[in-house]
Amino acid sequence: MTGLAQAKSGAAGAGRFLPPPPLFLLQPILRRVVRRVAQLHPNLFDRLGPHCNARFVIDAAELPFVLLLVPDPENLIFRAVSRRGEPESDARIRGRFFDLLGLVDGAEDGDALFFSRELEITGNTEAVVCLRNALDDVEGSIAEDVAGLFGAPGRAILAALRRAGNRRGKSR
Amino acid sequence: MRPELICPAGTPAALRTAVDAGADAVYCGFKNATNARNFPGLNFTPEELAQGVQYAHARGAKVLLAVNSFPTAGRFDLWRDAVDTGARLGVDAVIVADIGVAAYVAERHPGLRLHLSVQAAASSPEAIRYYVREFGVRRVVLPRILTVAEIRQVKKEIPCEIETFIFGNHGLMVEGRCSLTNYVTGLSTNMDGVCSPAAQVHYDKEPDGCVATRLGDFTIDRFGPDEQAGYPTICKGRYHVPARDDAYYAFEEPVSLNLAELLPQLIEAGVEAFKIEGRQRSRAYVRQVVGNFRKAVDQVLAGEAPELADLVALTEGQKQTVGAFGSKKWR
């Protein structure tokens, strides 16, 4: 079953507090990230089954853009998209940045986030369940894999994000 | 007696997490209808199970294979293959519910340990003795409907081990007999291994911030903006009925079982194994719940008062109960 629910009210529209970044600068980084994850964890796609062609929109509430993910090993897509031009999707996952980071870091339980209404999912629930299970079966931490791509600065940023996430977890 | 801690493994990564967190045994199933958690993206291929068995055995843990759904006519090969594959890969026991599957294990794999799944709903000494006598069942997983006092009494009257759930989903339907999902979706919890198939679950966000949960064509709950949520199962849904003004939980409430406080009584009653539910849950859940219960069980066995960590954040509806284990009047 899935863990999903709605992001709590404070998260709505939080993206407007950050200035929109130049998305074209993000795209090559995101492409590199998703290719690296696919290279390190090719078995991840097996658990997606028929949903590897699904279009997922991932909405971290604090960011001024959303992420589009198509986990097709033959044609991987992971890019930032303006909120104004959000593409059509099969499923949409919305939550706070640190909760989403915790999920890919293997530190958070999706069902618990659903029970507490910290996550919202709409669209194809089965595709989201497959994605959740595929990511959860990745040994170690995808977040660490990604951070490792950028060497010491990447690992330092991840460590800082984890500390911030822990502080937030303790305070809620 | 040192009771075993039996822990869920929905994926190979969860299996390794459970073993590393202190599981005495993990239970898991294949990626098909032969087990009662046949969810998309979950479970094991034979190759993954082989690696899991190797990992667990190298660290002194056992692997129990759930083959605990009910085969329908013409599909028995799937269950037979699951049992044969599990035996070939060296699993330590198979957990079965169906008497045909139990008979197959007893006849073809007499050396393979047989556990009776909660899905068999065997809760009386007479029923349990039948399975022991006919199929050589070594352990029964009791339905979550007995008090500790009743478990103690049952234990005196049966010639096999007892396993009880101690944490996780709190399903009090007659286990293995629930047809609610089948009625609504055409798929069976018991024969297809899928309760509330995700393909038929829909969350509809409404303009007022509420979220309606639908299973197939039926709305089964509607959560207000600040309400805790539960699983999208019919038994945990809220319904309007003529006798009530407001929608209410007609079957069960979204609440999880947590028997941490009853561990000393359960050990004293003779329970040989404690089961943690949650093959559909994440590695984070497995790590936290298994780690906490490992510590608590060890403390009880050492004669100490168990430190009971707060696991409520992981529970359905953010609520927990000792359910019928404490009293028949639990609800």
Description:
The complex is a heterodimer of chains A (172) and B (331). By secondary structure, chain A is an alpha+beta fold. Chain A has seven helices and five strands. In chain A, 45% of the residues lie in helices and 16% in strands. Chain A has a five-stranded mixed beta sheet with strand order 3-2-1-4-5. In chain A, helix 3 packs across helix 7 and helix 6 packs antiparallel against helix 7. The longest helix of chain A has 21 residues. Chain A starts with 22 loop residues before the first helix and ends with a helix. The N terminus of chain A is likely disordered. Chain B is of the alpha/beta class. Chain B folds into two domains: 240 residues, Aldolase class I (TIM Barrel); 70 residues, no CATH class. Chain B has nine helices and 15 strands. In chain B, helix 1 packs parallel to helix 9. The model of chain B has no long low-confidence stretch (mean pLDDT 94). At the A-B interface, helix 4, strand 5 and helix 5 of A face helix 1, strand 8 and helix 9 of B.
Short description:
Chain A is an alpha+beta fold and 172 residues long.
Please give the CATH architecture of the largest domain in chain B: Alpha-Beta Barrel
| Spatial arrangement of strands, main beta sheet of chain A | 3-2-1-4-5
What's the order of the H and E elements of chain A? Answer: HHEEEEHHEHHH
Multimeric state of these chains? heterodimer
Topology, element by element:
The complex is a heterodimer of chains A (172) and B (331).
Chain A: H1 23-40, H2 44-48, E1 56-60, E2 65-70, E3 77-82, E4 91-95, H3 97-104, H4 110-115, E5 119-123, H5 125-136, H6 142-149, H7 151-171
Parallel strand pairs in A: 1-4
Antiparallel strand pairs in A: 1-2, 2-3, 4-5
Helix pairs in contact in A: 1-6, 3-7, 6-7
Chain B: E1 4-8, H1 12-20, E2 25-28, H2 46-58, E3 62-67, H3 76-89, E4 93-96, H4 99-108, E5 113-116, H5 125-135, E6 139-141, H6 148-157, E7 161-169, H7 180-185, E8 201-205, E9 211-215, E10 218-223, E11 238-239, E12 248-249, E13 256-258, H8 263-268, E14 273-276, H9 283-301, E15 320-321
Helix pairs in contact in B: 1-2, 1-9
